[in-house]
Amino acid sequence: MDYSDFLTIDVFLVILFLVIIIPAIVKKIRFKKAPEQIEKVKAMAKTSHDYLVRRRNKLTYDSYTTRTEYYVDFQFEDGRRENFYLYLPQYDSIEENEMGMLTYRKVGKKLFFVNFTPTN
């Protein structure tokens, strides 16, 4: 290896940093800066979507696995409905038609679930 090989690797790493790492950091900062909003809601519907994920392996063969995404549709007091992506433990803890306080963050046009506290 000569000096030009190291230069090529350095350029590649800088491009990788600029294209992948910096946007990820900016996204995380925007999320953390977005204020948490808390509103009274009703959990209207729970849905899950299964889909097939293909994993390629050059040495042997392609393999497949399934992935499930979980969503809860909340209705706000003003009548609007929003759908939130949740992880399984959060999804399991919420019942349909359950009233409670929803904590979420809005980054741009996207809404991110933070917490749901049921009210009696």
Give your account of this protein's structure.
With 120 residues, this protein is α+β, with helices and mostly antiparallel strands. It has two domains: 1-33; 36-118, OB fold (Dihydrolipoamide Acetyltransferase, E2P), CATH 2.40.50.660. The chain is 31% helix and 48% strand. The protein is built from two helices and five strands. The protein has helices at residues 3-33, 88-93, and strands at 36-55, 63-76, 81-86, 99-107, 110-118. The protein has a five-stranded antiparallel beta sheet. Strand 1 (36-55) and strand 2 form a beta hairpin.
- Major beta sheet, strand line-up: 3-2-1-4-5
**CATH topology-level name of the largest domain:** OB fold (Dihydrolipoamide Acetyltransferase, E2P)
Q: Give the number of helices.
A: 2
SS-derived structural category: alpha+beta
Topology:
Blueprint lengths: L2 H31 L2 E20 L7 E14 L4 E6 L1 H6 L5 E9 L2 E9 L2
Antiparallel strand pairs: 1-2, 1-4, 2-3, 4-5
Give a brief outline of the structure.
By secondary structure, the chain is α+β, with helices and mostly antiparallel strands.
Which features characterize this protein?
OB fold (Dihydrolipoamide Acetyltransferase, E2P); 5 strands; 31% helix; alpha+beta; 2 helices; 2 domains; single chain; 120 residues; five-stranded antiparallel β-sheet
